[in-house]
């Protein structure tokens, strides 16, 4: 609970050099507790280890350490039980917890901030929080991948149109199309993991910006908190938000992939395409048109993409003109991060459910492969195999298509003699090339849509998810 009702001022933990109290309007404008309260677990975890390090280095006594740790645990319990009051005039999560601790245990609580600043403390909290959230994101990404692989296995062999420029291009297997999204989200997992390799360094000990003259042990803190090491430069550490920007880029890419999928689900569920049916539990109706069944879930995912992109842009613009080291502008890193995280996690979670409630209409998908000269490229490849240069073959097939358009017929409607008017290299075996199935299964290159390649890709994806 955040207490905004009281406008009375209180002695600041940093207020020694000030002769008057802070204006209530300033307190309201500068506070961040209304959103950074969610860092309480990370703040307490970091403070407990910091207290242990201070005692180990002889900067506080073991009794003081034990009192600090016990008091912090009590505060954590109060926060999780909902009995802790966050006070606006204490500005942020760090000072709220420190003031509550001092009220509980007295002077020992005032020693907790030895050899650290809120500048390195918030960097620690954020890194711990983002590292933990990355584990949740990875699980959600895996759930979405699993949805695509299950569908790819279920509909293996079903043919559909592949598109470029939203125009029918070449026939492909539906499973091949679905596994394209599997690959997108696989890259997202890899990208996030790579981001963590740079994020997973402990900033504690950089203090305000120049380090500290007290005999601290940064490596001890880093090891206890599960970091791979410590940051190298104190000035860079307190002014750095690269790890947040990179993390937001990872979130943005995930959301863009969700948005691209959502666009296809919206199109495919329309009467114009009619490729899929989304379960009634995941659609809504119209307040005026009783026949409507609207794909609101993918529409909202698509719409929320602007929020995530905006979060990244907001932090990029915030950081672009900042001199070293810490500036209060950096307080603006958390709201975009938190909102983007919440949005992406929500989108991934509902998408995993949605994929389990989508039915593909196999007959309609195959029907959509007829028309549009979708096997034209196969004729060109056929002529290349007969030793015709590809550019010449491209021209020959273009002429064939042009005549079909003039006569309002398809490639399969042409006779052998008609085809041979365009090239004497064409023989009876051309007709196996003109079928949709023949076209699909001819794509045997690595990563292609041939049934053998796609079957192997499904097996490989299943193995990846089980590893």
Structural commentary:
- The protein has helices spanning 24-30, 33-36, 40-56, 62-81, 93-105, 107-110, 118-154, 174-199, 218-224, 234-239, 242-268, 296-319, 334-355, 362-367, 376-385, 390-407, 416-420, 430-434, 436-441, 451-466, and strands at residues 2-3, 86-87, 159-164, 167-173, 276-278, 358-360.
- It has 467 residues and is mainly alpha-helical.
- Among the domains are: 25-114, Fumarase/aspartase (N-terminal domain) (Fumarase C, Chain B, domain 1); 119-148 and 176-216 and 226-363, Fumarase/aspartase (Central domain) (Fumarase C, Chain A, domain 2), CATH 1.20.200.
- Strands 1-2 form a two-stranded parallel sheet. The protein has a two-stranded antiparallel sheet with strand order 3-4.
- α3 packs antiparallel against α4.
- The protein starts with a strand and ends with a helix.
- 39% of the residues are buried.
- Mean pLDDT is 94; it is low at 6-10.
